[in-house]
Amino acid sequence: MFLSCSHVACTRCVMKNTESQTTGHIHCPQCETKQRLTPTLQALRLLTGDDKLFHLIVKLKEEMHKRFSMTTEGNGDERSPLKHIYTSLSINFGKREVLPGHYSTMMKRTDSQVAEVQFNDLFHSPPVKTRTVLTNGVAGIGKSFCVQKFIVDWAEDAAQKDAHFVFCLAFRELNLIKNEISLLQLLTDFHPALSGTDPQVLDWTKVILILDGFDESRFELDFRNTERVTSLQEVTSVSNLMLNLIQGNLLPSAQLWVTSRPAASHQIPGEFIHTVTEIQGFNDLQKEEYFRKRFRNKPELAEMVISHVKSSHSLDLLCQIPIFCWMYSVLFEEVFGGEEQTGAPQTLTEMMAAFVFIQTKRSSRKYDKTPEKERTKLLKAKREFLLKVGKLAFIHVLNNNLIFYEEDLQQCGLEFKEATVESGFFSSILQQEQLFLQQNVYFFVHPIVQEFFAALYVYDCFTNNKPWAPELSSFLGLESSESSSRPPVFDLLKMVVNKVLKMNSGTLYYFQRFLLGLVLESNQRFIPGLLRPLESSEDTVKNMLIHLKVIRRKTISPDTCINLIKTMVEMGDTKSSEEIQEYFK
Description:
Radius of gyration: 26 Å
Strand order of the largest sheet: 6-11-7-10-9-8
Strand content: 5-15%
Number of domains: 3
Structural class: alpha/beta
């Protein structure tokens, strides 16, 4: 039987102890302090004699195992056992600091300078009992996969054996709840096994509550003006429930695990966070393990991909993030093992263009009655749809929205029926999930994909005499978007760069790189027919590189300077490529 100090006590001794029977506490012989009992499931059954509670927990474990043991990895229509996909990640105790660029991937590894922790030890590693653990990680780093593995291990009795209940609330689902509700009812809606449970059970058993994807919240959370709620049965708004949970007014004895991107997590005051961890992603060995798992039936292809990743410094850094390992796997499976045989992409812009084309081709091959095999014709046929997705991406990237609902799609001319027809595409780039409320939610597999689509849309607007979205005119600070009054493309591109510089937050860094990267004609070789070629492309690239070099000579932050160098790399400046590699040695 576990104690709240994480030491273990003999179940028989506890049952003989009078104090433990009456107060639920016992004197720990190891640390010589009074501690709360947290018995294992079997010990709980012996201690309480409550078969109903025992069967409730067993049923919840079965329910959670069924829900989380199968998963998708970008391929929304192909579910696989989590154990076949999951690869261990490097997780470190960290500090709360905002990183410039909310999903920056070019970073120096400092593995030897930090203390690693296993995610199953999050509530046991600190020297004192922790109520709330915040786990930061950039988008696509594997936060939700860690949550799934944590839950599955608990359900299989492989870890967290002292926890009686593990609940998971995802913000992308909570966003859909508009009515007021009690915490007990909310937990029951997400975990039907709880139906009819006495709420007092949650006060004296050990509960771990996971709040997954805090960065996806659309709630306005004001921690200074909270309507205090302490009863599990009191009805209030979902946003107020979240505030009271994080502040410890609700389920004060429960342990909380919050996952988030770094920038968003700073909305939570430090007084409510007791331990901070950060997911660092894959180290070199974990990358290799991932690719070998991914291509377990094609070992030669796995070794080719590993070799290619190691040969590119920027690609090697990028693949610290698991979602990019998946994207490269999809891409190189076609390049090395498929019918394309077009050669590997040389820039990030070209890689994203290749990824979009390959997923569009796969979708057409699977869902179209007469799939178009010729690349240019296929992209022309899908052009209107892809640019609608680009409009959706651009409008919402301005507000840092990562999650979309059906009304958001409709505002960009994407009808639900159209989304259903293009379901293969939606599951691979713009993922679609049907939540427990039986509503659809959409999200790009990674914000970088969203920013690439946003760049496609803006590039198309700059090179075509068609109406713009009002959001684009507002972004550029233009009173009119009429084609007759628009500045030349070169001036429009400079306006984008200046706007991103003024924001000075890392937001839209990739959007800028992709937009300027698309000006280079070779970066469009994977997507012929999708965009209109830019007149005087070589002159525009030359003049833009001169403009960026002038900006670099001014007083700007190191992160802004690095972003400008990376933008120049996307535009084919080989000297900048050498410069960035020298910096990251």
